Amino acid sequence: MPRSDNTLAAAPWGSRLLGREDEGAGTRRLRIQVLLTVPIVLANLAGLFLSVTLIGFVLPGPSVFTEKLLLVDAVAAPAYAVIAMLVGVSWGTARGLGALGWAKDPDAIPTEQQQAAAAAVPRRLVRMQAVLWFGGVTVLTLLAGLADPGLIAKVAFGITFSAVVVCASTYLIIEFALRPVTSRFLSDRTTRSPSGIGVFGRSLLMWLVGSGLPVAGLMVLAVVALCTDYVSTARLAVCVLSLGGATLLIGLLLMTQTLAATVAPINGVRRAMREVEKGELDLRLAVYDGTELGELQSGFNNMVEGLREREEIRDLFGRHVGREVANAALTGTPSLGGVEVQAAALFIDIVGSTTMAASLPATEMVAILNRFFDVVVDEVERHGGLLNKFEGDAALAVFGTPAPLPDSAGAALACGRAIRARLDTVGADFVAAIGIAEGRVVAGNVGARQRYEFTVIGDAVNEAARLCELAKQDSLLLTSDKTVTAAAPEEARHWRLGESVELRGRLAPTRLARPTP
């Protein structure tokens, strides 16, 4: 899909780490696998380090570095950590591939059941992480308690704190890595209700994990220190400094992840809005967020689609009735009736079209007409006129209405000469005659309330039609002396006056004018 903004093309899912839309399925699968595995493994290793630090050096209580706990410290804890890591990677990969198997085919359209399973992948993988971590809480707390009951609260709190932080960070990592997959079904969803806990709930949850839980732990330690002599002043200071530092670091990490997940869709919409302001409507955002921000992305796509359809209708409308008439109808309040204006009319008709239609195949006749009208429309628009009507093999153009021209007569005369010159070179298989006249006409909407069209009626239109009839037996391009007189001198010098004739249906004689050789 073409996009004029390089950032939108290079980072359709809000980050260059997620690749481009046009990369291969195998490359994308490998990229997602790496983005899922590496950060999650690092997050779990960081959680293990945090647990060891809290239990071994920060939290008050009996020391875990004793001979009674040698078996737990040296064997049980490391063994469980390694087993949990291996199980987590293999289990998570199997669960993820099972739910996202359809995504291997770039053209596959997921069913509703597959969409629901894909949307649930982050929650399922986090539940898996929670099972492994809280399994560790149970096993290691039990083993430590058997060796020293005073260690139960210390070990349980240290591992639980790390588990909650790792699970929260893992959820955001999985959501980020799966954006390319999520966008494949969110973009085509018919219902736009947000899924999950939403932006507010996600932000509140991250605050609770990154700030609320550590502060609550500090408050518990403070209560213990006030009510008992179990916690010394020095130990309390160490706990406050350590947990306070962890709170700052973990809170910053989780809030950065949360804000990045929130800002990325907004930035995408903002950049796309700038493209729309420039007139670029051939773009579509990837909808990869399941919260209210996904609704924003989807709503933007719907808005652009509506603008694109409106522009197509506007263009089609302009092709049918003329750009000026279309703009006037779209910007104003159209009504029946007209106004009297000074304008020029140009009438052009193919000579002998009846005979041509009877002797030529229909497809060939249509090709001739299209070639003929292509020249007429191009020159009329280039000279500021409006092609008002197609009448079979003839056409009526007006100059000076609905858009005013400073020299409508001169524009019509110059247009007539330009059409004549081009038809002499491209119209070898047909001949067309042109009549031009200038004067007062009535221009406006004529018809019924349910259906009307812009039209121009008046003496100048009738005179142009009669001059066109006469031009078929004359020089193929005729106008009147009044029209040449009304034109600016720069155009009038290209015309020479001739004899006077009585045109059919007119009371006064008309003096003819022809272009100079």
Q: Which descriptors would you attach to this protein?
A:
eight-stranded mixed β-sheet; rod-shaped; alpha+beta; 517 residues
Describe the protein's architecture and organization.
- This protein is α+β, with helices and mostly antiparallel strands and 517 residues long.
- Helix content is 62%, strand content 13%.
- It has helices at residues 6-10, 25-58, 70-99, 112-119, 121-147, 152-177, 179-186, 198-227, 233-277, 292-321, 323-331, 353-359, 362-382, 408-426, 459-471, 481-486, 489-492; strands spanning 337-350, 386-391, 394-399, 432-447, 452-458, 477-480, 495-501, 510-515.
- Strands 1, 2, 3, 4, 5, 6, 7 and 8 form an eight-stranded mixed sheet that branches.
- Strand 2 and strand 3 form a beta hairpin.
- Helix 6 packs parallel to helix 9.
- The longest helix has 45 residues, at 233-277.
- It is rod-shaped, with a radius of gyration of 40 Å.
Give the number of helices.
17
- The level of helicity is 55-70%
How many E strands? 8
Biggest sheet descriptor: 8 strands, mixed
Percent strand: 5-15%
As a whole number of angstroms, the C-alpha radius of gyration is 40 Å
Poorly predicted runs: none
**Could you give the distance between the termini?**
54 Å
Shape: rod-shaped
Structural class: alpha+beta
Mean pLDDT: 85
